Amino acid sequence: MANHELTPEPAPDEPPPLQLLADPLAPSFDRRARLVRTGDTEHVVVAERGDRIRLRVDDEWVRVLAWVHRAELRPAVARDTTASGAHRALGRGAAIRLRAGAPLAFDPRTGGASVIIDDGALTAFARVPGDALGDVWRIAASSAAADATTTPPGQVTTDAEILDTPAPGAQVLARVERRMAATAELPSPVPGWHLVTLDSPHVSVTGYVHTSAWIAGGGRIVTDTAIYPADQDGVELPEGTCLYARPGGALVGVVLVTQHDATRTARGWARWEWAGFRGRVPLYARPMADGFETCPGTLPAGEPSEPS
Known about the structure:
mainly beta; elongated; 308 residues; disordered C terminus; SH3 type barrels
């Protein structure tokens, strides 16, 4: 039975699979998209065919070329833009700048007239120009975020609200989801308030924060670390192994980290299950005299074959 995630197979005018699976990928593949099912993960867009979008999906273990429907894509800011307040014009000195790729959701409290941008660091509330909304964006169109290695003059505490004017009850521009580095206009223009600028990967907000939420000087900000599942016994697929949609079918992926839980089919091909977007998807490795077929040029230089 055909797999709806891996078909239709490439058209004759599309680049060959090895080119789409290569590492590094050619700079011309500069479009990105997110899936509703995979949250904040960005995927490279390698082809479009009507309402079908072909994505290059990298997870911890494999790289796969998979087709999805456009309706499955998460809304995003399609180009760098300056937004206005969710409810009214911004106060003097306040600003909301959104970078291409900022993930968004339409705010039901305003009937979808405004959006909520939550990138894990900042949650901003704004109105975005209609021509800046979409589901696919070009990374070349997005300006770089602030240098994260620069020592900031201070930090803003978790759950602090950034306001457009220095007064209680003012319009909320953004909420800080975790303690963030920030720059501030010093001396403070208004007693009891700081005019601060916070930069996250997708959002830059300038607004007022109460002095009670301001921490002078730098400090250690703890980030999460990845946890990987343990290997399981089975047929081993080394890194660089080519993966096919079916035995003898289209090349659609490559193993990035050695897998130990594949099984051998009656025809000698190895069968391995990818988590997929809608459930587990079988992928197949072609048997060779010395193991399994490998895809040259698809692995980054110097990468370990096992997570440490």
